[in-house]
Amino acid sequence: MTAFFQNLGMPYAGAWTLATLIGILVIALPLMLAVAMVIYADRKIWAAMALRRGPNVVGPFGLLQSFADGLKVFLQETIIPSSANRGLFLLAPIITFTVALVTWAVIPFSPGVVVANINVGLLYVLAASSLGVYGVIIAGWASNSKYPFFSALRAAAQMVSYEVAIGFILISVVLWAGSFNLSTIVTQQTGHVLGLFNGFGFNPLLFPMAVVFLISALAETARPPFDLTEAEAELVAGYQTEYSSMSFALFWLGEYANVILMCTLNAILFWGGWLPPIDWAPLYYVPGIIWLFAKIFFFFFVFSWVKATVPRYRYDQLMRLGWKVFLPLSLFFVFLVSGYLMFARVGAPL
Fold it and tell me: With 60 as the cut, is the pLDDT of residue 348 above it?
């Protein structure tokens, strides 16, 4: 796109800036629409599993319910508690929402369709997603209220705990792919198992890591059964209890953008991204972005399915799972994968 604008007579700096802005908008605007639609899908899936109808009044089949809810929130008054730290109180939801968006800069939707195809894309995702903890902590502290502060501490401990396990899981993927570049990780999955199946998840050594990553993604995004930040009995509504209007909506949008991101990472890191499940020529006639979206929706369905059926963990169970089960397991598989790759490459030409 930069070359296109250069051909129109623009200097390189201006052409690159305009092309980058267009690329950002092409991803950010559909993402916001996707968030509205996945909230609707979430509610419909929960309703179906509880034998209810779900949203069905606003628009055909209730499709406009999320937009009606957004308009209602937008028209509400923004209330800031008198004893709150005003600046930090307003900054927290902006941090959460912004961090949820900037991570998408390195996500490849199909070959060449990515805003920034950097060689350390996976490290960028880890670094950017880790910043979400700051928005949570600041929100709880700036509210100057005990329950939001307790919830923020819980959320921070939970997110940090499972990020450790996720980091070791990603080391296994990087070792096998030989790159931190997300596009390269996807292409390395072509015909990965028996020359037939596309995806590290079909590999017996990496399939357990795919399962652990999926469960850790639930905990990382505070989705049930790990939604201890919003346990109604003791924390009211969590760290965003004192928020209203658009400041509350920014937390909501950021949360669902992170959920979609985790579903996308599941698809890209373990299940072939834009590749079809089977390395069979006719399947490649389907555009890669369709395969990616189908996998994202499948994982989102799993997220909603778990929310509708699995009871909430206690906090001690949550931390025990992260530190005493997932961390040792992910470390063991790093050892196993690296050992296998080392012995498999013995005698291979350097």
Answer: no
